[in-house]
Design a protein that fits this description.
The complex is a heterodimer. By secondary structure, chain A is α+β, with helices and mostly antiparallel strands. Chain A is built from ten helices and ten strands. Mean pLDDT of chain A is about 85; it is low at about 155-160. Helix content of chain B is about 50%, strand content about 20%. Classes of the chains: A alpha+beta, B alpha+beta. Strand 10 of chain A pairs parallel with strand 12 of chain B, so a sheet runs across the interface.
Amino acid sequence: MSKSLRRLIITLVILVILVIIVFAIGPFYILNEGQQAVILRFGQIVRVDIDAGFKFKVPFIDNVARYSKKIQPWDGDPTQMPTVGGEFIILDTTARWRIADPRQFYSRLGTMNAAFRRLDDIIESAVRTVVSQNTLNSIVRDSNLINEIELEIEAEEIADVSIVAEGFDQREFEQQLAQAASTGSQPNIERGRSNLSLESMNISGPTIQELGIELIDLVIRHVRYSDDLIDRVYDRMISERNRIAEFYRSFGEGQRQELLGLLENEQRQIISEGYEESEIIRGEADATAARIYSQAYSASPSFFEFWRAIESYRQTIPGFNKTISTEIDYFNFLHSASGN
Amino acid sequence: MSDNEQPKKPRRVIITTSMVLMVLIGIFVIAGAITVFFQVDATEQAVVTRLGKYHRTVGAGLHFKMPFGIEIHHIVPTELNQSMSFGYRALEPGIITVYDTRDYPEESVMLTGDINIIDVEWVIQFLITNPRDWLFNVEDTYKTISDISKSVINRLVGDQSLNAVLGPARPAIEDQARIDMNDILDQYAIGINVTTVELKDIVPPSGRVEEAFKDVQDAQQDMERLINEGQQAYNTEIPKARGEKERAIQIARGYATERVNQAEGDVARFNAVLREYLNDPNTTRTRLYYEMVEDVFNSKTAETTLIDKGLQNFIPLLNLNQGQQGGAQ
């Protein structure tokens, strides 16, 4: 190896080592976007760096404690807690917070874990307090909207049935249906879910602020009943539905009966009309025939009497088993040619 | 290429300082070149930070940045429509979307304003609109979006009645949810825009509650069926009745015609005979009489017994043992 080559290699190695040393203990560090840092010298906070970029510090002596500047999520464990009415609900809350004062945050908390633990305590207790002072309705709902649009929706939604029938009154049907389906109105609330979240935040705010944290918001992610109450709710829901089903069936049956009654009435009417008309026709025909007969027969009543008798004998007597005396006129010439 | 080439053959390759220097410079340059270019797709944008600090945002194409990590670029998919589903999962989104049939009740089962329980599935779609905000303002962006989505839907559903949520309030909830979500996420400056919120299946909780709901639909159908039955009966019977009425009238008319014709026929015959009688009463009378008696005696269906008027020793005796004959047969 040539001497100059060896020199080059040594120079390079020294350079590399120097660079490494500089970077390690260096008089600078890079603060990325979304980060903030607290500079500690001999355990004391000397500076807080908030803006990202290339920063200077005293080597060896200064320590950099980095914290996120970003908005952090906080998750509460879904816990069971009672409302003012004693119903146990399971509330799942979530919050957003930031390290607003890194200096304070460092002195009071130091680590994110510590922050989460404190937030758990503070927020959960605030939420629990607020819940215990308010009704279930206030926690579940946000406004009194439900009472304002209740009736409209019931009829509209359920009466999506198209019924074509004689004498069917759509409006009355809808009214009765709305009645059957109505569950009554809900109690009005003065404050809703959003207000309660705000109140929880206000309660916990000051304490949290002292920790160098800004609580940005606190919302309820999920409300539900505790398990033993669920059955009761289910029972009620089922009986409400049953009532509606019952209504449909009995209404249908009622309509059917009405239609059948209508049917029978009309049927009778039609048939009796037919009877009446046919009797009239028959009667008129009989009268005409009688007129024809009497007009003709009255031309000679005596001959008519004879002729009619003759015709009648022809019809009836051949059917009798008869014993006839020879005295009848027919036999006048039987015993003598001159008749007796 | 190493600069520690040990010559194994007697032929010696001379490694000069300048050669090594050139190789090193070459590596340096190539390394620099590689880290100086970066490409951004049409569906993306890139945020470039210089020494940690935000410097610029660039769009699609080939770009330069300072090498060796002085400038770092972060690619953000801004044209990509991202979606999140709640209460269900689409396993393989594609032409036919396959859904995970497991429920996710911890997400989907919620309370309505009239303290009923309901199962709501929904999906949101969003676009990243501000890459810088997206990268640097919020920790765990997807979880934050998910949390807010759940809390908004939970709140909106909790403000309505069960019947409303099942039907007529759906579009209003979808609309309001999108607006509310964007309001809140804008407060965080998370850099996205929720483009749609779509409610999917909204059903009563499974089990006996679901059955009760189904029964309502069955009852609706029962009602329609009953009314139709009534209607049907009406539609078939009334025409029948009308037909009967017509028939009765027609029969009566038939009778009427027959009766009048009969009368006219009878009368015509009478008038004809009457004319003869008026011409010659006695002989006509006699003739008619004899014709009648002939017809009577010629009967094939009954017996005729003659008794002479002179016979006085016979006692008329009716033999009742021979059974009834005569009259109607």
